[in-house]
Amino acid sequence: MTGFSGADRITVLLVEDDEGDAVLVEALLEEVGADVELHRVRTLREATRLLAKVDCVLLDLGLPDTTGLDGLTRLLSVSAPPAVIVLTGLNDELQGERAVAAGAEDYLVKGQVDGPLLLRGIRYAVGRKRAEETQRQLRDEQLHAAEKTRLERGLLPTPILDDSDLLEVVVRYQPGGSRMLLGGDFFDVVRTRDGTLQVLIGDVCGHGPDEAALGVLLRIAWRALVFADQEPSRTLRTMHEILEHERHQPGLFTTACMVSISPDRKWARVYLAGHPEPMLLVGDRVTELPRDRAGLPLGVLPDSTWSGLDVPLPPGWSLLLYTDGLVEGRVTGDTERLGSERLIGLIDDITRDRPDWARDPEGLLDSLIARVKALNGGELDDDMAVLLISDQG
Question: Which H or E run includes 378?
Answer without folding.
Answer: none
